[in-house]
Specification:
single chain, 3 helices, five-stranded mixed β-sheet, three-stranded antiparallel β-sheet, alpha+beta
């Protein structure tokens, strides 16, 4: 007996399923391209960035530039001496004869005024030395516990710089000044590199 084969339709060609390995390679290839483009773009903007890079707020000072001492400031009102008393007052000042002549000529021309600012060491100690500078003219004063008359040439308003010459005694050197408003204690000096800057108003 002969068996007849079961007639079945011939299989039609079907699209083969994508190979997982090839699909993975395609995805990695696309991802690698995107990554390469991203890195390239980042490198471009990094090397071509026109923004100013962040820098420290304060540049370190140069080693060759000496530090400028900070000045403590105060304000004082001083009384003007009558021009008629200028020669006698200058004769008792610490200025050189040449400086006295220049100051007196400026006072007579009305370009400068003389004020009096008696000073002392508020602690009562004797021997502390200070320099008092105004308008480029400096007087050296040795302080004690009593007011010493200090004659200062100045315009209507100006500044007086007081600097210690001797090392301030402990705990601090406090210069007392007799102003138009009465005795006044100036800012304390504790080291040689400190200064007191007085803003002066002449009455």
């Amino acid at each position: 007996m002969t068996v007849q084969p079961d007639p079945r339709p011939e299989p039609r060609p079907q699209p083969l399923p994508a190979d997982p390995a090839s699909r993975s390679r395609a995805l990695w290839g696309g991802g690698g391209l995107i990554a390469a483009l991203t890195v390239g773009a980042g490198a471009f903007f990094y090397t071509h960035n026109t923004a100013t890079p962040l820098a420290p707020a304060v540049a370190p000072p140069s080693q060759n530039v000496p530090a400028v001492p900070a000045a403590q400031t105060a304000a004082v009102q001083l009384s003007m001496l009558p021009p008629a008393k200028a020669p006698a007052a200058l004769a008792k000042s610490g200025f050189s004869p040449a400086d006295r002549a220049r100051i007196l000529a400026a006072v007579k021309d009305g370009k400068m005024r003389l004020v009096e600012m008696p000073v002392l060491d508020a602690s009562g100690a004797v021997g502390q030395t200070i320099d008092v500078t105004v308008s480029g003219l400096t007087q050296r004063v040795i302080l004690n516990g009593r007011f010493q008359h200090l004659i200062i040439p100045i315009v209507e308003a100006g500044q007086i710089l007081i600097a210690p010459v001797s090392i301030p005694h402990a705990p601090a050197l406090i210069v007392g000044a007799l102003t138009a408003l009465g005795p006044e204690a100036l800012p304390a000096l504790t080291t040689l590199d400190q200064r007191v800057l007085l803003n002066v108003i002449v009455q």
